Structures are given as structure tokens and as C-alpha cells.
Amino acid sequence: MDAVITFTTDFGLDDAYVAAMKGVVLGINPGAKLVDICHSIKPQNVSQAAFVLSTACEFFPRRTIHLVVVDPGVGTTGELSF
Fold this sequence. Notes:
The chain has helices spanning 17-28, 46-56; strands spanning 4-9, 33-38, 65-69. With 82 residues, the chain is α/β, with parallel strands linked by helices. The longest helix is centred in the N-terminal third of the chain and has 12 residues, at 17-28. It is 28% helix and 21% strand.
């Protein structure tokens, strides 16, 4: 059985970042099944990403790989507040 890999990011869909990420995965495993959960997480909002993923992940098969890319420090001075 080929891998199921989900994607949740704060990238948005206005550029090629999501496509590039998927291209890298498919270059490693051309048979992977790629599923977009959400790419409109508010920038740097780790809590929102966790909530969105938690509402979806229970419906995926065991051994699904959930890739989440939300960088809480991009565009900041390095201090984080949650």
C-alpha cells in the first residue's frame, strides 16, 4: 500500500510553494497519495493548525503521514507569544 501523506500549511495558494513541496514528496515516492487538508492557516498560527489537523486526522487510515508546516517565527523578531 502506498503512503498517504496529508498537508496542512500557512502557505496559501497564491504561489508555487505547495506544488514544490508535493513535487519533492513525489520525487521520493511517486506512488504516494497526497491529500490537502488546508493551506489557509493564518500565518504563524500553530494553534489553528493543530485544531484543523485534529478535526481531520481521525478519518485517515493508520500510518498516514501528516505534514504540517506553520513557522511561528517567520517575519518576527524571534520572540514568540502564544
